[in-house]
Design a protein that fits this description.
The complex is a heterodimer of chains A (about 625) and B (about 250). Chain A is α+β, with helices and mostly antiparallel strands. In chain A, about 25% of the residues lie in helices and about 35% in strands. In chain A, the strands form eight sheets. In chain A, strands 22, 24, 25, 26, 27, 29 and 30 form a seven-stranded mixed β-sheet that branches. A five-stranded antiparallel β-sheet of chain A has the order 4-5-3-1-10, with no helix packed on it. Chain B is of the alpha+beta class and about 250 residues long. Chain B has a five-stranded antiparallel β-sheet with strand order 6-5-4-1-7. In chain B, helix 2 packs antiparallel against helix 3, helix 8 runs antiparallel to helix 9 and helix 8 packs antiparallel against helix 10. The chains are: A alpha+beta (about 625), B alpha+beta (about 250). At the A-B interface, strand 15 and helix 4 of A face helix 2, helix 3, helix 4, helix 6 and helix 8 of B.
């Protein structure tokens, strides 16, 4: 019989062993899922040409750091990018981190790009060097992207099965020419290669065509599907897009072609499984066991370099306005016989192959015999034959001013033909119009101009009308600035103005009312006037001018009562005051006023005999009486 | 006395260092480059003119023409809109903008305007924001000035109150035009530069896509957040796009 302790000890040992057994493979599996592949887009480049190194990391555990490229002797790193993709295959998810590094070679010879160390989650993984042949500059054409064999990292097992690699599905962009003139088209062709069933889902990132006028060819014309054998493998090859780029400036341009999105159909139940939506389907060439998920893939073709040459100066006609291609010109006028003052339409048409949209039609010289109106334009661009061609027409209304046979001189048009490298100047034939004298029309009708052709009335298409010419003089705005409304100070200032204005208008209105009220004005001013006169009287008394003092005091009192009761000064009497002060409380006031008036009357006629103290007393009496009246509000 | 002074001035002018010679006009230089077909130099010349010589509808218009010729519809639209904002009455700008608009991928028809607001909107569109602001501010200032004079000179108040009616009416009319254009004045326009951009229901790449916009499309900014702007299209649709997908007019 075993003891409990021994049993427990055995159980504990079994548990530990089981944990080791389970965790070992799991750890190994976890470690085994980290794998790295690297590839370069070219194995042979010229000095100064771009070379892209892609490092694809599957199931990275931890943060992925960009490798240090400073130790590379023969290559210079000019760009770095980093993207993440996740795909589902056979019920499992796989994450990929792709580091793209752009280099250019600095010296010719057989070189090694690498080795590089990539740090993933604190662990360094070695990416072996790639052999690159560097040719001297100018020794050969630029190659489009071709997939090369991938190289495996030193650590970790091979990539997870079921994941679509760059070898299975890839895209190329090719230019039909490497060197063009300004405004000569270079056609970019996007070609998709796949050895799996795949659906083209359009562009994840559009091409960057800055510096070019771009014309897209119709997709139904551009789409083409074939099969090819490449490196021993069969691919379905599809042309998915064609764009004509017309460069506007001379120089060397690198066009970023954007990125295509495809859904790769990893399941292969039916090798000939058909089309889905508007995408492209490749014939399935499944090599792997059946899976049930679709894998999304972003394909970023290598940039395309285009060299643009300037147009030659030698032989350039004066009438040349930038047209490049092969063109014809013709003209037509109708009707050929009109009355004076009636309109005639002159049509000038330029047709051919080239960037029709930017063709500038010739303008008419000064026509003395005609009144010429602004032209309207109509253009028709055709791309059915996978080249940009079409015609552009100007319709000009002209009105003969006087009778007779008038000639519209030929219009000249110059273009540069890149095929021959020469300029050509072509012209229309001269057109004649016979203008008969106006008959039966009034003078106003004959002189009335025809309605100017309206572009919208002629049903002009989107590319129809040409833009108007640049301004030759610089004008500044009449009122500069973008407007004050979004300035945070503006509306408080407006509110302040409105409030201030309203208050001021109210004050002005009140003052007007008061100014019109004569009686009220006298009443309001009575005390001030009386005080001023009393002060004047005091000054006169001090100076010893008794007669003047008496007169001034008399005026002060009488003037006060006159203003108070709206009377004439000379008729102020005690009786009148009595008639106005009818209230019982006014008895005392009336008595004081009567006393004052009587004393003032005596003083006035006997001022020389009055002594100073008496005069002073009278002055004080007048002040007190007036003050008492002020306390008694009289309206 | 005068002669020696004039002679001295003349000597000073002649002896002036070469730097005082008249500075080149970047606008004229850009025009010359445009005529030659050197669009890149013309574009940088017009940009320099706008930076050094201040805003100008002519310079914006010419720059827009350069971008039109270069095939950059987004920037062309941006500068035509700026030219129109500075000079709403310029027919050439309106014409070229209509030509450009008809070549754009997105056609956004504005929702039907009220029959009462349409005449006001039409009248308001004739004036730039700066002109409306100047007229409104000027009218208000005159009205306040008249009030000030009337308050201190009661005898003239009657005449001043009659004279103040005109600036008051100008203020009210201009205020009505401003109110009608308020949405446009307070919400700057945004022009898409990228060939195509997805407008989303929220300001994040994880939000669902609402619709697609293409270069040259213009819309009003009604809201912003870090890295995103919320646009209102003329047909009433709303959507968030990344700030770097275009530029504000």
């Amino acid at each position: 019989m075993r003891k409990t302790g021994e049993v427990l000890r055995d159980l504990w040992r079994a548990l530990v062993i089981a944990l080791v057994i389970v965790s070992g493979p799991a750890s190994a599996a976890a470690l085994a899922e980290v794998s790295i592949e690297s590839s370069v887009n070219r194995s042979s480049v010229e000095v100064g040409e771009e070379l892209i190194l892609d490092i694809t990391i599957y199931n990275a555990q931890g943060r992925v750091q960009m490798p240090d490229t400073s130790a590379l002797q023969d290559f210079s790193n000019f760009s770095r990018s980093h993207r993440q993709e996740i795909s589902f295959t056979n019920g499992r998810s796989t994450s990929m981190t792709v580091l793209s590094l752009g280099f250019f070679a600095t010296s010719p010879g057989q070189k090694k790009l690498g080795p590089l160390n990539v740090n993933i989650g604190g662990v360094d993984y070695r990416v072996p060097a790639a052999d690159i042949e560097v040719r001297p500059a100018g020794s050969g054409p630029v190659n489009a992207r071709q997939p090369t064999r991938s190289q495996r990292a030193a650590s970790g097992p091979s990539s997870v099965s079921g994941v679509i690699s760059d070898r299975d599905v890839f895209a190329r962009v090719t230019a039909d020419k490497e060197e063009v003139y300004i405004n000569e088209p270079v056609v970019l062709t996007y070609t998709l290669y796949t050895n799996h069933s795949a659906t083209f889902k359009g562009f994840e990132k559009e091409p960057v065509t800055t510096g070019f006028w771009a014309e897209e060819f119709p997709s139904d014309k551009a789409l083409k599907r074939t099969e090819q054998i490449l490196n021993g493998e069969r691919y379905v090859v599809a042309t998915v897009r064609k764009i004509a780029l017309f460069p506007t400036q001379a120089g060397v341009y690198t066009v970023d072609p954007g990125a295509l999105k495809v859904i790769v159909d990893v399941p292969a139940q039916d090798p000939l499984q058909g089309f889905i939506s508007s995408g492209l389907i490749g014939r399935s060439l499944i090599r792997q066991p059946l899976a049930t998920e679709m894998v999304g893939k972003s394909l970023a073709p290598a940039p395309v370099t285009v060299r643009v040459k300037a147009l030659p100066e030698q032989g350039k006609p004066a009438s040349f306005t930038g047209a490049v291609g092969q063109y014809r010109i013709d003209s037509q006028i109708e009707p050929r016989e009109v009355e004076v003052g009636q309109p005639v339409t002159l049509k000038i048409r330029v047709s051919g192959e080239g960037n029709i949209n930017t063709v500038q039609l010739p303008s008419l010289p000064q026509l003395e015999a005609f009144k010429v109106y602004d032209p309207s334009y109509n253009s028709n661009v055709v791309k059915d034959r996978l080249k940009v061609e079409g015609e552009k027409t100007a319709e000009i209304v002209v009105v003969p001013r006087r009778p007779g046979t008038h000639t519209v001189p030929p219009a000249k048009f110059a273009y540069f033909d890149p095929r021959t490298g020469a300029y050509y100047e072509i012209r229309t034939v001269a057109q004649t119009v016979t203008a008969k004298p106006a008959s039966g029309d009034s003078a106003e009708d004959a002189a009335a101009p025809p309605p100017a052709p309206s572009p919208s009335a002629k049903g002009v298409s989107a590319e129809a009308a040409d833009i108007r010419y640049i301004k030759t003089t610089r004008r500044s705005p009449l009122v500069p600035g973008a407007g004050p409304f979004v300035d945070p100070r503006f509306w408080p200032a407006v509110a302040s103005g409105v409030i201030a204005g309203s208050v001021l208008w109210a004050i002005a209105a009140a003052r007007r009312r008061r100014a019109r009220d004569g009686r009220g004005l006298r009443l309001r001013r009575s005390h001030a006037v009386a005080r001023a006169r009393l002060k004047q009287a005091r000054d006169l008394l001090k100076k010893g001018r008794k007669d003047d003092y008496a007169a001034e005091l008399y005026r002060a009192a009488h003037g006060y009562f006159a203003d108070k009761f709206d009377l004439a000064e000379r008729i102020v009497t005690t009786e009148l005051l009595e008639a106005r002060l009818t209230d019982a409380s006014d008895r005392e006031l009336l008595t004081r006023a009567r006393t004052l008036l009587e004393e003032l009357a005596r003083l006035r006629f006997s001022s020389s005999s009055a002594d100073d103290p008496a005069m002073q007393r009278l002055l004080r009496s007048a002040e007190e009486t007036i003050t008492a009246f002020e306390r008694r509000r009289i309206r | 006395m005068r002669k020696p002074l004039l002679l001295s001035l003349g000597f000073l002018l002649c002896a002036a260092p070469p730097g005082i010679a008249r500075a080149a006009d970047p606008f004229a230089e850009a025009n010359a480059a445009y005529v030659k077909g050197d669009l890149k130099t013309a574009a940088s010349g017009y940009e320099r003119s706008l930076g050094e010589q201040g805003p100008s509808a002519s310079a914006e218009y010419n720059l827009a023409n350069v971008y039109f010729k270069s095939g950059d519809k987004g920037r062309s639209r941006l500068h035509y809109e700026r030219a129109l904002r500075l000079d709403p009455r310029d027919k050439d700008t309106a014409w070229n903008l209509s030509v450009l608009s008809r070549s754009l991928t997105d056609v956004s028809e504005p929702s039907a305007a009220s029959v009462f607001l349409w005449p006001l909107r039409t009248a308001a569109a004739v004036f730039s924001a700066a002109e409306l602001g100047a007229v409104f501010g000027g009218g208000l200032a005159l009205w306040v000035l008249a009030a000030l004079c009337a308050a201190f000179v009661p005898r003239a108040a009657s005449a001043l109150s009659r004279a103040a009616v005109l600036p008051l009416i100008v203020c009210l009319l201009t205020g009505a035009l401003i109110a009608v254009r308020w949405q446009e004045l307070s919400q700057p326009a945004f022009v898409i530069f990228q060939p195509s951009v997805e407008a989303r229901y929220g300001p994040s790449e994880r939000e669902n896509k609402a619709f697609e916009l293409h270069e040259g499309t213009a819309a009003r900014i009604v809201d912003r957040t870090e890295g995103w702007v919320y646009l209102l299209l003329p047909d009433g649709r709303f959507g968030w796009v990344p700030t770097n997908s275009g530029e504000t007019v």
